Amino acid sequence: MASCIFMKKNNWSKIVQTFSRRSGIYIVFFVSIFLLISVLTAVQPAYRFSSDMLSNWTKEMDSTIFYHLITMENRAYEQSFPEGEAEIPKLSGLFFELTSNVKPTDPRSLFGNEIPGFAIFDNQLLMASDNDFTHFPIESNPPLEEVLRDREAVLTEEEEAEEDTEEEIENEQTTGDRDVVFIYNTHNRESFLPHLPNETNPDAAMHGEINITKVSDRLAEGLERKGIGTQVDKTDIGELLNELGMGYNQSYEASRDVVEEAVAGNQEIQYMFDLHRDALRRDKTTQTIEGEDYAKILFVIGTGHPDYENNLKVATELHALIEEAYPGMSRGVFQKDGSSGNGIYNQDLAENALLIEFGGVDNTMEELYRSADALAEVFSEYYWDAEAVQSNQ
């Protein structure tokens, strides 16, 4: 009897010890949570976690991690994995990526912060036909005096004749007197080496007349033929910079005033296009389609402001439509923050604002005009389809 009572007391003692130990763990856990919440709510707003911080943090993770988490709840999703890729990534590799910001499969993550000038590759090229990092856009940044220097420039007889052609509206639908598209050129003097006979330096491919503005005019003509009223700004930003005593790297500050004035003066503007010329060479900026050469285009979206998603949506939709009609003409959609450029590009001033790179330093006006006509065709279909949807709502 005594031994039985002793065993009961011993068991009860163990239960009490176990409960006390677990209670201590629970108390420490809840106190830690309380202290963590207190710290997070007491610190200054600049140091608190935000949705952007969490988004940027999770963006560094392999996206398949989240899909694997779903498959843990529903095994049927495993069938959608490509053969040989159904194994969940190792947690050690994931921890290494999150703590070091280095991805073993992406050398940009290591070299981007260590090698000067390599940060240009630490951006996102979306919906591209390939993952060649050398296709990323390169922006010329010469001294302003080099931009304004007089140079000889020529156009072929065929290109001059194309400038003088006037065609009637091809579309039954029109915007009437409303100019719903606004086109401007922040780097309006960006020119093309084939039209500068005495110039061989890509960074010096600049001219006051034979430049990217002619592509803007051609695109506007194409849109007008499709019934889409278009306004083209003629401001010489290079000359404006000189008058204001500003540098070429302040071009977007100068063009911002132009955009703000346009938006304030025309409430009908629905789309804004800032046309540029890339500094990449011909092999990266030219596509042959059915025996004819086209200057490739690239959509650049600045992510340095909170409302870039709508611009990104328009760019990705246009890219898909171009790829369907003119395969290979679009180089994709390039997201660029402020780490290696302006990062906003005045796209915070209105919805549906795009920066479009047309060709490169080695493309001809004939190739550029061809691409401008193609974009006008694709965009007009996109525009009128969107108008039809809105009118039916």
UniProtKB/TrEMBL annotation:
Transmembrane intervals: 24-43
InterPro entries: Spore_II_P
Residue numbers spanned by region Disordered: 155-175
The keyword Ribosomal protein is assigned to this record: no
Keyword Transmembrane helix: yes
Keywords, sorted A to Z: Membrane, Transmembrane, Transmembrane helix
Pfam families (alphabetical): SpoIIP (PF07454)
Biased composition range(s): Acidic residues: 155-171
NCBIfam families membership: spore_II_P (TIGR02867)
Protein name: Stage II sporulation protein P
Organism, as annotated: Oceanobacillus neutriphilus
Organism ancestry: Bacteria, Bacillati, Bacillota, Bacilli, Bacillales
